[in-house]
């Protein structure tokens, strides 16, 4: 799952049949049209080039809070009108926030595209916020925090590992924010953030489905075209960068409710446009070969052959503006301690760094990654996500289109080289999730 | 976890219950023509032939899932499902997975209460290999010692994790409370006590009794024609026994509400499930109830529960309710979660909304909007081959005709306000079965819960 999600973040279609068209409006809005004529349905996805890593220190969670508040209505369309319209026409909608982007999408019958484009354009600059709907929504976000983080020890470990991995870069802050800072977010902060970052020249509009580029161009011009450029927004995002890592770190999260311990490790690795294309592809292949399935190196060694773990995974987050993570994780069998498990894991990783991977493992991993790009053509929403994420972090349409070829070109030497260069302990944080036996869990079920 | 996505998660939560039952959303009218394929050997499948993408997706199901587990060994069906792709014929687990992965073939099995189901997806060029491997998996699973112990360990590990996971605890408690003396009350995934007792004889016995031609349902979507599919179906499933040997399962109604269950767990957010007896799929009021439920708590952002609980009061991040229909019963079930000191108020709001719907039904305007949504959303729900194949299996299992997608708008549009009022009254006049999982004291006394303090020690 994890591995897949990471790989898919910028993989792309293999065939010319789905060639997307792209154009940019005078106000700077980039529009990408991905044809899919199998059903009379269309997906609109707008990606803003702003995420949690663009928040001012002290206001963590603001990008995500604003995402929630974007459903609170505008002067032209009061709260609920957009969602009710989507619902009435049988569409669905969603929104998401990550480190590097915030996105909104609707999937609707094709003849309703103009309607949802009008709504989306309207809320790019027309949002109206009042305390009476901002404050209850902050409670909703705090409940989301409770669900995702407070109730979930594994999620807290993830937060701690990321915080330890990034000494200087804002990727160390959780997307949802730190609780004590979420509690203080308010209307003024949200509006300031909105005015600063939501503009046509800071967004990518992806339209996928049963439409033609010419039609979309006219509609985009009519709906988004009149919105003014925001000249203060820099073309490139400049954030504090990580220093060269100087030493491995470990984090332990103990909780009385942990009945199944686990460990994870993240390495700081290059990603996105800042990474060499060959290295990015080699890291994808490495993640797939190392921990992408039941025949991967880690699963075979730790789970099948040595019987130390019940599961083992690897993943790579390749779609990111700045240096991102290569992760490995394992869940020990009862009675297996972390040092034994970790030694076995280290040995697999060292094996790849020292000796490379077998030709058959390389081919299998590449086959699976290339197949993913074909399977993806079966889902217009997935294609829209791939292109949207890639373009928003600064990759190009061509990067996505060429991915199958880039993957095919990866050699065993490339994989060994990135393993040797990046999967070194000094670049890593290892996290352990353990039971806190000092506090008995209150549980009598 | 990269994405923080309010609506997605609400759906995921709903799914923790829906998956346990058998809920599939609505179909795509536009997607196309569905053919009934009968193989030379007499196997039937529904096929949507579509060559846009060079792949084939198949979904299939055998009736008789966890209901067939021995009473003292819940989890046999699930464990069998997890082991079908772990070695078969002359291929051991490693060789079997190597063949799958070398050809990027996706093969999954799982068991729910009423059935064992599977999905197969492949690129066209690997079609024969994929169906050949599936044949081995369903006709000659090996149940070798290594994979059996490995899968058992994985399932036990998952159960240990779930043993302090509030949503999982709530789901288990709900089904156990609703069906105390029926297989539906047992957890399909087994328990920490039952899984260690499961033997290879249990697994192979289950496979032998359940994997048969007369209780197999198949749907295929993709770049394949009827004749080729017919031949592949015979090659794949033709050597299965003609008849399944199923233990009969009694029809049952969920326990009469009201009933309250609380599970103590030291978490800052209290998880609440609520539900009660529902309708079976063939009930004449089913569609009216489905529409009324959509208005009350269905999957859109404009349901009454969503508005009252989340939008207006900010009580919870997620709140929704679904109808769940099984072969031998129907229930309605919803879920929400809020911090401990607001749990009672949240549940009171939910109860008030459910009661109001039972007493007054929806308004004419709500009914019109819901019909409009349900008609329009049909084709959205099934925009990938995998989703479409899964839905076509469900329609067959539900006894709906091959023309159901064409008839469905008519069925929806024929529902009157009176129908929805009658259905709402039938479903929601009797109180609720509620399950709460959280800090017992805070929830029951209404005292504010202490702020959650993550016990994180960095060293």
- Count up the helices of chain A: 17
Low-pLDDT runs of 5+ residues of chain B are 1-31, 442-459
Query: Which structural class fits the helix and strand makeup of chain B?
Result: alpha+beta
Oligomeric state of shown chains: heterodimer
Proper CATH architecture of the largest domain in chain B: 2-Layer Sandwich
Reading the helices and strands of chain B in chain order gives HEEEHHEEHHHHEHEEHHEEHHHHHHEHE
| Main sheet summary of chain B | 6 strands, mixed
Helix content of chain B: 40-55%
State the strand order across the main sheet of chain B: 1-2-6-3-5-4
Question: What would you call the structural class of chain A?
Answer: alpha+beta
* Whole-number mean pLDDT of chain B: 89
Q: What fraction, in percent, of the residue positions of chain A are helical?
A: 40-55%
CATH class of the largest domain in chain B: Alpha Beta
Strand content of chain B: 15-25%
Largest interface, with Cβ-Cβ < 8 Å?
Answer: A-B, 101 and 89 residues
Element order of chain A: H for helix, E for strand: HEEEHHEEHHHHHEHEEHHEEHHHHHHE
Overview of the molecule:
The complex is a heterodimer of chains A (445) and B (459). A six-stranded mixed β-sheet of chain A has the order 1-2-6-3-5-4, sandwiched between helices. Chain A is built from 17 helices and eleven strands. With 445 residues, chain A is an alpha+beta fold. Chain B has 459 residues and is of the alpha+beta class. Chain B folds into two domains: 6-237, Cytochrome Bc1 Complex, Chain A, domain 1, CATH 3.30.830; 259-458, Cytochrome Bc1 Complex, Chain A, domain 1 (2-Layer Sandwich). Chain B has helices at residues 6-18, 76-83, 93-102, 127-139, 145-162, 166-178, 200-210, 226-237, 286-297, 304-312, 343-360, 364-376, 378-381, 385-397, 404-413, 417-428, 440-445, and strands at 35-38, 44-49, 55-63, 106-111, 115-123, 216-222, 259-264, 269-277, 319-325, 330-339, 433-438, 456-458. In chain B, the strands form two sheets. In chain B, strands 1-2-6-3-5-4 form a six-stranded mixed β-sheet. In chain B, helix 2 (76-83) packs across helix 7 (200-210) and helix 11 crosses helix 16. The radius of gyration of chain B is 23 Å and the shape is globular. The two termini of chain B are 23 Å apart. Residues 1-31 and 442-459 of chain B have low confidence and may be disordered. Classes of the chains: A alpha+beta (445), B alpha+beta (459). The interface between A and B is large, with 101 and 89 residues.
């Amino acid at each position: 799952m994890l591995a897949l999600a990471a790989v898919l973040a910028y993989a792309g279609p293999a065939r010319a049949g789905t060639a997307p068209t792209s154009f940019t409006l005078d106000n700077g809005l980039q529009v990408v049209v991905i044809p899919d004529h199998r059903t009379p349905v269309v997906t609109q996805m707008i990606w803003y080039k702003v995420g949690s890593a663009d928040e001012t220190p002290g206001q963590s969670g603001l990008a995500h809070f604003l995402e929630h508040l974007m459903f609170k209505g505008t002067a032209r369309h009061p709260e609920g009108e957009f969602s009710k319209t989507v619902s009435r026409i049988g569409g669905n909608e969603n929104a998401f926030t990550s480190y590097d982007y915030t996105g909104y999408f609707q999937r609707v019958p094709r003849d309703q595209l103009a309607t949802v484009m009008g709504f989306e354009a309207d809320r790019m600059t027309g949002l109206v916020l009042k305390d009476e709907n901002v404050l209850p929504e902050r409670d909703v976000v705090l409940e989301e925090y409770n669900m995702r983080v407070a109730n979930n020890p594994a999620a807290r470990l993830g937060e701690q590992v990321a915080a330890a991995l990034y000494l200087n870069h804002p990727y160390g802050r959780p997307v949802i924010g730190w609780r004590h800072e979420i509690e203080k977010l308010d209307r003024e902060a949200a509006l300031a953030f909105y005015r600063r970052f939501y503009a046509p020249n800071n967004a990518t509009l992806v339209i996928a489905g049963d439409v033609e580029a010419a039609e979309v161009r006219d509609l985009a011009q009519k709906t988004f075209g009149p919105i003014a450029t925001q000249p203060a927004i820099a073309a490139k995002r400049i954030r504090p960068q990580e220093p060269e890592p100087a030493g491995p770190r470990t984090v332990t999260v103990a909780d009385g409710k942990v009945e199944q311990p686990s460990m994870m490790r993240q390495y700081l690795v290059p990603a996105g446009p800042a990474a060499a294309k060959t290295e990015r592809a080699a890291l994808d292949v490495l993640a797939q070969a190392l921990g992408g399935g039941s025949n991967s190196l880690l699963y075979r060694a730790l789970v099948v052959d040595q019987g130390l773990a019940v599961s083992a995974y690897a993943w790579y987050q390749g779609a990111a503006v700045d240096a991102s993570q290569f992760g490995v994780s394992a869940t020990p069998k009862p009675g297996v301690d972390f040092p034994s498990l970790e030694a076995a894991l280290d040995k697999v990783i060292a094996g790849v760094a020292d000796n490379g991977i077998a030709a058959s493992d390389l081919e299998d991993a590449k086959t699976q990654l290339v197949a993913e790009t074909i399977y993806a053509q079966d889902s217009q929403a997935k294609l829209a996500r791939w292109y949207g994420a890639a373009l928003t972090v600064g990759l190009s349409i061509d990067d996505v289109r060429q991915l199958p070829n880039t993957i095919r070109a990866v050699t065993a030497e490339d994989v060994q080289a990135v393993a040797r260069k990046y999967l070194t302990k000094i670049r890593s944080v290892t996290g352990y999730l353990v039971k806190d036996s000092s506090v008995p869990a209150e549980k009598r079920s | 976890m990269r994405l923080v996505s309010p609506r997605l998660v609400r759906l995921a939560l709903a799914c923790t219950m829906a998956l346990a039952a058998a809920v599939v959303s609505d179909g795509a009218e536009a997607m196309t023509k569905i053919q009934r394929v009968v193989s030379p050997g007499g196997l039937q499948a529904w096929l949507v032939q579509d060559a846009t993408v060079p792949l084939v997706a198949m979904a299939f199901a055998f009736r008789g899932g966890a209901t067939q587990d021995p009473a003292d060994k819940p989890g046999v069906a699930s464990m069998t499902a997890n082991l079908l792709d772990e070695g078969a014929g002359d291929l051991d687990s490693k060789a079997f997975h190597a063949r799958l992965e070398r050809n990027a073939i996706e093969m999954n099995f799982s068991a729910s209460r009423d059935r064992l189901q599977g999905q197969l997806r492949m690129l066209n060029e690997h079609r024969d290999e994929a169906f050949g491997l599936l044949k081995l998996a369903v006709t000659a699973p090996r149940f070798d010692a290594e994979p059996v112990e490995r899968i058992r360990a994985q399932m036990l590990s998952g159960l240990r994790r779930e043993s302090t996971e509030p949503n999982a605890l709530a789901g288990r408690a709900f089904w156990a409370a609703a069906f105390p003396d029926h297989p539906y009350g047992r957890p399909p995934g087994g328990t920490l006590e039952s899984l260690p007792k499961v033997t290879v004889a249990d697994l192979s016995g289950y496979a032998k009794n359940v994997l048969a031609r007369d209780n197999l349902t198949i749907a295929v979507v993709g770049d394949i024609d009827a004749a080729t599919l017919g031949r592949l179906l015979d090659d794949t499933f033709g050597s299965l026994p003609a008849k399944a040997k199923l233990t009969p399962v009694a029809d049952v109604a969920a326990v009469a509400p009201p009933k309250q269950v609380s599970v103590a767990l030291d978490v800052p957010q209290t998880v609440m499930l609520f539900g009660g007896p529902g309708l079976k799929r063939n009930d004449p009021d089913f569609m009216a109830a489905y529409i009324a439920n959509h208005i009350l708590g269905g999957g859109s952002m404009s349901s009454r529960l969503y508005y009252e609980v989340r939008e207006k009061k900010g009580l919870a991040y997620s709140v929704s309710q679904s109808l769940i229909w099984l072969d031998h019963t129907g229930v309605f079930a919803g879920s929400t979660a809020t911090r401990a000191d607001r749990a009672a108020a949240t549940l009171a709001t939910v109860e008030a909304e459910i009661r109001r719907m039972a007493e007054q039904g929806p308004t004419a305007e709500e009914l019109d909007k819901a019909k409009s949504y349900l008609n329009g959303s049909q084709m959205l729900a099934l925009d990938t081959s995998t989703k479409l194949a899964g839905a076509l299996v469900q329609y067959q299992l539900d006894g709906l005709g091959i023309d159901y997608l064409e008839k469905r708008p008519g069925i929806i549009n024929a529902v009157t306000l009176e129908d929805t009022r009658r259905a709402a009254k039938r479903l929601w006049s009797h109180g609720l079965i509620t399950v709460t999982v959280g800090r017992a004291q805070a929830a029951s006394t209404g005292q504010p819960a202490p702020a959650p303090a993550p016990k994180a020690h960095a060293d």
